[in-house]
Structure formats: structure tokens, C-alpha cells
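User: Predict the complex with 1,3-dihydroxyacetonephosphate.
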Amino acid sequence: MRTPIIAGNWKMHNTIAEATSLVEALTKAGNKNQAEIIVAPSYTALAVAAHTAKGSEIKIAAQDVHWEDKGAFTSAVSPVQVKDAGATHTIIGHSERRSIFGDTDEILNKKVAAALRHGLTVIFCVGETLAEREANKTLAVIEGQLANGLKGFTAEQLKGLIIAYEPVWAIGTGKTATPEQAQEVHAAIRAYLAKTYDDAFAQETRILYGGSVKDTNVDEIMAKEDVDGALVGGQSLIAEKFARIINFN
Ligand code: 13P
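Assistant: Here is the predicted structure with 1,3-dihydroxyacetonephosphate placed in the model:
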């Protein structure tokens, strides 16, 4: 049995005051599935979100980390700093980092190394573009992202890893993968983990679906065998919507 995870990626949204009231609202949202609840605020609100979440079930993730602990890297934020602010998790490899900021597989691999070195739980994102899906390259693309991004690590070192499958064509578009499309890719990711590492690691690794998850479609997505949770963008900014997603049926 894998404990479900409902994670909210706030992206570049929320002031400190907004982050505080959203976390406060979520502490009262209930959690009928005993899911792990994670929110990923901007760096500016990490500390206040962590402070507000103290004593609740809500865990805090950074949206990214740099690969060095400190140094002359203007604007970057290190794993040491996000831990200091109260984060226990970090997203790495979100498609917006890959496509807008040019994070390559090699860079992501260094970021994974840095996060693991500091004991942060990594939420590693993978996903294909629409062109890749239409060219029947979905599974090859995702296997490549996993192989390169996680290169050099054993199952033991990756223990606790969370993978998020986020088809690029479904992010912020209102177009959700069908539960069957999500299940197909999630099962393929689990098979890849079994083949590359071992069966125990494949069985225990949580694989989240992300891409236009809503209060109205979360139940059918979560019903799929290999879908262990959701990584939610837009609707994680709205307390009532995210509360309903946390309390999926
Ligand atoms: P949306 O839920 O807004 O489509 O965003 C998904 C996402 O990118 C979460 O990381």
C-alpha cells in the first residue's frame, strides 16, 4: 500500500499574506484519505508557509533548487537555504523549468544530487510534449528523462523518491490526460523502475499525475491502480478546490 500524495505547485503565485491564509485554510481542510499533503510556495513564502503549517500535516516543498550549496550564483537558491526555510521536499525538473529556463537533463541530475545530499525528498517531473505524444515517443521520452535525470543513483540512494508524470500538453491547458492515458504511462514508469532498479523500489515509489487536475476529475484519476497522487497547479491556489482534491473519493 502506497500512501497517496496530494501536492500543490503554486508556481509564481501568492504573496506572503496569501500564502499564509491559504496554508491556514488547508490546515482545516480535513484529510479523509490520510494523504501526504505538500505545498510548494515561491521561495519568498517558504518560511512563512512552513511556520504556518507547523503542527499540521502539511509539508513544504521548494519548486526547484540549485546544485551548489552556496556561492556566486546570483538569484539561485540552494538546498541548504530551502531546508533552512522549512522545506522537506523539492520539485526538480518541472516542464516549465525545462522549457522556459533551459534546465537540461544534466543540470537536473546535478540538482537531484544536491537535494539528496541534503536529505530533501525529490519530486522529479517527467512528461512529453504533444508533438512527442503524436509521434508515439511518449514512453521513450519519459524513460530518457528518468535515465538521465536520475543517473548514477542506486535504488537505496533514491529511496523515498516521488515521480510526477506531467504531460506538457495537459499543464495549464484545461486538457487532462484521460485516466487511461495516465494509467498507461504510470504503469510504464513503474515497469521501468522495476527493470532499472528492482521490484521493491518500483512498488514503493509514488507516481503522481499532474496536468489540469481539478476537483471534478481527481476521483477518476486517483482510482487508477498506478496513480498514487496528484501534482496540482491552478486549483491548488484555491482553498476549497484544493481541499476537495485532498479529500478525493
Ligand atoms: P495545472 O494543474 O495548472 O495544469 O498545472 C499542473 C502543474 O504543472 C503542476 O506542477
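The CA atoms of residues 19 and 218 lie 23 Å apart.
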